[in-house]
Design a protein that fits this description.
seven-stranded mixed β-sheet
C-alpha cells in the first residue's frame, strides 16, 4: 500500500459513523489528492466537501486545505479525530502534516492546541498537538 491508499482506508474507517447518517457519500482520489464528499439529504444542495487531502511526495508532506464537518455533527470530535488519524498515517510514512488555508479563528484554535505555525494561514501538526 502507498500513502494515498492508506489515507483513503483510514479516512473512510474514521468517518463510517458519519457516513451511516448521510444520504450518500463517496471518496475519490486523483493527482495526489483525496476528497471526501457527503450528501445529507436527497437534495443536491446538501452535498458537501468534507475533506480534501493533498499529498506532496517530493517533500514528504500531507496538506489538509479543506476540512468541513456538517453543522449537525459539530462538537462530536469528528474533525480533530480525523486529523489525529491522518497524522498517524503521515507518521508511518514519515510525512509531515500541515493544515493550510485556514480561517484566522481555526488557526488560533490550533495554535492553542500546540500546533506549530507554518505561515500566516498554515500550521504543522505533530504528536505534541492536542487533538
Amino acid at each position: 500500500m502507498n500513502i494515498t491508499s492508506t489515507l483513503v482506508t483510514c479516512v473512510d474507517n474514521w468517518l463510517q459513523n458519519l457516513y451511516t447518517k448521510m444520504y450518500s457519500h463517496h471518496t475519490e482520489t486523483y493527482e495526489n489528492t483525496v476528497e471526501v464528499h457527503v450528501q445529507e439529504t436527497s437534495s443536491p444542495l446538501t452535498k458537501t466537501l468534507v475533506l480534501r487531502i493533498l499529498i506532496n511526495e517530493e517533500h514528504k508532506q500531507v496538506h489538509i486545505p479543506n476540512i468541513f464537518i456538517p453543522l449537525n455533527f459539530h462538537r462530536q470530535g469528528i474533525g480533530f479525530g480525523l486529523i489525529k488519524e491522518i497524522l498517524k498515517v503521515a507518521n508511518v510514512y514519515r510525512y509531515e502534516l500541515f493544515i493550510v488555508d485556514m480561517t484566522p479563528s481555526f488557526y488560533d484554535r490550533l495554535l492553542n492546541r500546540n500546533a506549530q505555525p507554518a505561515g500566516y494561514d498554515a500550521v504543522r501538526i505533530d504528536t505534541t498537538t492536542r487533538l
